[in-house]
Specification:
alpha/beta; single chain; 739 residues; eight-stranded mixed sheet; 36% helix; Rossmann fold
């Protein structure tokens, strides 16, 4: 596949000959199926590889009777390799391989790619240096991708030294630069000695670097590769080809610049199509894999979620884990054939290439699934298997850690339907956990159908409200929510009590307002929306809404808010509208405010903040985002810039109880501040731990029953039926943990 997710373009046939004045004549014969691409696309690739295009000729197509060939001829000026007097043949050969790899989407096209021609680094090994930089960049080094590439290009000896060090440690065929003819020098002692010599040479080269920023980059690259304890770089697939994605398993504790708490281990994955990281808190750990929309700082996102997951997993045996991946934008050449257009950084070589979709749009589900497959496969590449109860390491992999056989993943944001795909990949690898690898698939527990996460969160709500003298199952109580009825945690949460009065809610599309809801009628309408596939607040029946209620789009210019709505939200009475005939510009999906002439306008952002500050019994978070920070914190501390405009401070909340069915809705400092002010709040990891508890029980049941299935005492269908029959028992046990 090409980087766009479309079938990869076929490479042209390239031949070279001498041109005048030290130039090289390059003839490209294009496959009949593709024909000649636009001239600009080819010139752009040459230019970004550091090759100067002096002239171009496009002779007529030639036919031999069976097929027609289209041919382009370029006059090129090749870069001279560092430290080489004359190596035209080597550079031409490298250019032929590199151009084909870039054109077919196997190699990326950025500043680092030039190492293949200017420094004579094999293009697949350029991936190692690029990967080390991409990981370093995600740690917040604060320097650009382009500057890092230029720094490495300016230090070719260091680039070669890095790769010598990497080969000495991980190449299973590497006999060492001192005695390449001696296979017996591949043992661990000689491998360590070779790595030590390469490391000493790197240290000497670092001592000669004058620039502080260049030293930070080069030293950081060395430190990252020194912390690697496994890689799939030298593995091959069943056809004998290198793996499509590079995985680096990193001992995070060895990198002092990483923020605390440092994971026990993390696996960094990069390829032309996908990039991501998976963190684990221990040898036995579990947590979700998400499709991130934060390409510039997804590691920061994962680290925050990882910290929460580690704490949340106190209710189960495994430590916490978390992972995320982002898509890489297609290169220009692949875009020409894949229809995606130029990727990020086209023509500059400066962009990291990470993004959420071609051209900044929403990527197709097929493309996301393909990226997920690549990411999960790379994680399994550096994971041991179990056979006959004994660990079996990956082939052609030098390991600097103990056997590591437990890798379990789960659905998360953007991957809710991918559990079966993950288990399919695990089956292809023959991984010992089988369909226990990813919980919640077709043969697992459906968390939304069980409503288990919301039911667990509701145990927290019941306890808090009980302490305030409110019986959540019988007494009326007011609620403001974050989410919509199509969501698992919010939708199921809003169906836990028939006596609640939901006066308002919001998600990323709409703001819902119902100042005086009828508990029975509104419950029935929420149930209808929950059952309606793909519903939103816009589907809410306006006839059910009380006077002054409505559903408003978040992109509306202004929202008319009635006097009764202002009263319920605890807002001061507004001044009467001007009498000069001016009107408030509203943009609503539904609105029942006609019966209240005392309406005034406010923006959707202001309305959301008013909902968050409303004097209600319960603020229930069932969505995604951080909406409350401490009064002493900045929006940067909340690390969720998408919600900076609507976020409020803890000392502004008037809700008596806050329950977090979703993760990270309130910062930890805000929770502490709110509790000191008398608010009832736990933490997200306590409120929503029922989901991970259920997943862990599913995995353990599948492991427990695997022996009976393998020995023929139980069929796979019988096992699945047994799991289904235990659904209520599992839920009861989980809720006992949550109570």
């Amino acid at each position: 596949m090409g980087p766009s997710g479309a079938p990869a373009a076929a490479a042209p046939e390239m031949t070279f000959s001498d041109g005048a004045g030290g130039t090289t004549r390059c003839a490209l014969t294009w496959p009949v199926a593709t024909g000649r691409p636009p001239l600009a696309a080819v010139v752009d690739v040459f230019t970004r590889l550091g090759v100067e295009v002096v002239d171009h000729d496009r002779p007529p197509a030639v036919s031999d009777g069976s097929r027609t060939s289209e041919r382009d001829e370029y006059l090129l000026r090749l870069p001279e390799p560092s430290g080489t007097v004359s190596a035209d043949a080597a550079v031409r050969a490298a250019l032929g391989q590199l151009f084909a790899a870039v054109w077919t989407g196997q190699a990326e096209l950025d500043g680092f790619t030039r190492l293949a021609l200017s420094a004579g680094v094999p293009w697949r090994e350029v991936n190692v240096i690029r990967a080390a930089w991409r990981f370093l960049h995600q740690t917040g080094v604060g320097l650009s991708h382009g500057y890092a590439a230029r720094t490495v290009l300016a230090n070719p000896a260091f680039a070669h030294g890095l790769l010598d060090y990497f080969r000495a440690r991980f190449d299973p065929d590497h006999a060492g630069p001192d005695r390449p003819d001696r296979p017996d020098r591949r043992g661990p002692d000689n491998r360590a000695a070779g790595a030590a010599r390469a490391s000493a040479r790197l240290e000497a080269l670092l001592a000669a670097v004058a620039s502080l920023d260049e030293d930070r980059i080069l030293r950081g690259l060395r430190d990252v590769l020194a912390a690697v304890i496994r890689t799939n770089h030298y593995q091959r697939d069943v056809a004998g080809r290198p793996k499509p994605a590079l995985a680096l398993k990193i001992a995070s504790s060895r990198l002092g610049f990483l923020p605390a708490p440092r994971p026990w281990v993390e696996v960094f994955v990069t390829s032309p199509t996908v990039e991501g990281v998976h963190m684990r808190g221990g040898r036995v750990a579990r947590g979700g894999l998400r499709f991130s929309d934060r390409p510039e700082d997804y590691r920061t996102e994962v680290h925050g979620l990882y910290r929460a997951q580690v704490t949340k997993n106190v209710v189960i045996v495994p430590d916490g884990a978390k992972g995320a991946f982002v898509l890489h934008e297609p290169t220009l050449a692949a875009g020409v054939h894949g229809g995606a257009g130029a990727g990020a950084g086209a023509g500059t070589g400066d962009a990291s290439g990470a993004g959420t979709g071609a051209g900044g749009g929403r990527p197709s589900q097929d493309r996301v699934r393909a990226a997920y497959r690549t990411f999960v496969s790379a994680l399994l590449d550096v994971t041991d298997n179990l056979a006959g109860g004994k660990p079996v390491g990956p082939e052609r992999t030098v390991c600097y850690d103990d056997p590591d056989t437990y890798l379990v993943v789960a659905a998360d944001k953007g991957t809710a339907t991918f559990s079966d795909l993950a288990n399919e990949i695990a089956a292809e690898y023959g991984y010992w956990l089988g369909d226990a690898f990813a919980s919640g698939g077709s043969a697992g527990y459906d968390h939304k159908a069980m409503g288990i996460t919301a039911r667990g969160a509701w145990e927290s709500a019941r306890q808090h409200l009980r302490e305030l003298g409110v019986d959540a199952d019988r007494d009326p109580f007011t609620v403001v929510g974050i989410g919509d009825m199509s969501g698992d945690v919010f939708g199921n949460g809003m169906l836990r009590s028939r006596s609640m009065r939901l006066i308002g809610a919001f998600d990323h599309r709409h703001v819902f307002l119902d100042p005086d809801p009828d508990p029975a009628a509104s419950f029935a309408e929420r149930q209808r929306l929950y059952d309606l596939p793909g519903s939103s607040w816009a589907d809410y029946d306006p006839k059910i809404l009380s006077t002054g209620g409505g559903v408003f789009r978040r992109d509306a210019r202004s929202v008319e808010l009635s006097a009764r709505a202002r009263e319920v939200l605890g807002l001061p009475p507004a001044a009467a509208p001007a009498s000069d005939g001016a009107s408030v510009d509203t943009d609503t999906d539904t609105d029942t405010g006609d019966g209240d002439s005392d309406s005034v306008g406010m923006s959707p952002v202001e309305l959301i903040q008013a909902l968050l500050r409303a004097p209600v019994d319960l603020l229930y978070n069932g969505g995604i985002g951080t909406y409350v920070k401490a009064s002493t914190e900045s929006h940067d501390d909340a690390a969720d810039h998408a919600n900076d405009a609507v976020r409020v401070d803890a000392d502004e909340l008037r809700a008596r109880v806050v329950v977090e069915g979703g993760n990270l809705g309130v910062t930890q400092a805000a929770r502490v501040e709110l509790a000191h002010l008398g608010g009832k709040i736990n933490t997200d990891f306590l409120d929503n731990s029922a989901g991970v508890d259920t997943s862990d029980r599913e995995v353990n049941l599948k492991i427990l029953l695997a022996g009976a299935v393998d020995e023929g005492e139980l069929t796979r269908e019988g096992r699945d039926e047994l799991l289904r029959s235990l659904t209520d028992d599992v839920a009861t046990a989980v809720l006992d943990d949550s109570a």
